[in-house]
């Protein structure tokens, strides 16, 4: 279970505002990549259920998202499909993370970043934490907001483009999603730089290898 060890250590070194940062949506074939940044207030007791978003039921995740947005300094940001295709998914994820940090009301003294790499354009000191969403409460909180926000975007896009099941698969390459790509074709919300989409477009003559 995540705890406050990283946050406590950072504050012991003089960091007053410690932000946890995570993203959602690196693996899907469609939709933006979304990042969130969260600063947990000092002295507040986080809900015992606060955990990596992947370990939570949708109902529990929604309830925790309400608590986080009510009690914490938080920000959610995105990188678009066009930015993903132009930059690559890693750089686009980092762009969304930097945007999320910029959206906080309090400039963080340090950012705890989920993963093994820090964004190039990070505006504050940072620490990369592998599996951080399962180790840091701030990162776990960010993972919840990022997933909650991105899932809602995909539900909305599913209404505009029925047939792909984005309200259920969030754009990930499920069997139904891949079949819909063959039956219905590629939408403007699909990531053309991802191999399955690129290969379909090549077969249809829209792009060349």
Automatic annotation (TrEMBL):
Q: Name one GO cellular component term.
A: cytoplasm
Keywords of this entry: Cytoplasm, Endonuclease, Hydrolase, Manganese, Metal-binding, Nuclease
Q: Which residues bind a divalent metal cation?
A: 22-23, 114
| Domain of life the protein comes from | Bacteria
User: What range(s) does the RNase H type-2 domain occupy?
Assistant: 16-206
**SUPFAM superfamilies membership:** Ribonuclease H-like (SSF53098)
EC number(s) from the headed UniProt entry: 3.1.26.4
Q: Which residues form the signal peptide?
A: none
The family database entries (CDD domains) matched by this protein are listed as: RNase_HII_bacteria_HII_like
Give the InterPro entries listed for this entry: RNase_HII, RNase_HII/HIII, RNase_HII/HIII_dom, RNaseH-like_sf, RNaseH_sf
Instruction: Tell me the cofactors it needs.
Output: Mn(2+); Mg(2+)
Reactions that this protein is recorded to catalyse: Endonucleolytic cleavage to 5'-phosphomonoester
| Pfam families membership | RNase_HII
* UniProt cofactor note: Manganese or magnesium. Binds 1 divalent metal ion per monomer in the absence of substrate. May bind a second metal ion after substrate binding.
Family matches, as PROSITE patterns: RNASE_H_2
In terms of PANTHER family, this protein maps to:
RIBONUCLEASE H2 SUBUNIT A (PTHR10954), RIBONUCLEASE HII (PTHR10954:SF18)
General function of this protein: Endonuclease that specifically degrades the RNA of RNA-DNA hybrids.
Q: NCBIfam families from the xrefs? A: PRK00015.1-3 (NF000595)
This protein's name: Ribonuclease HII
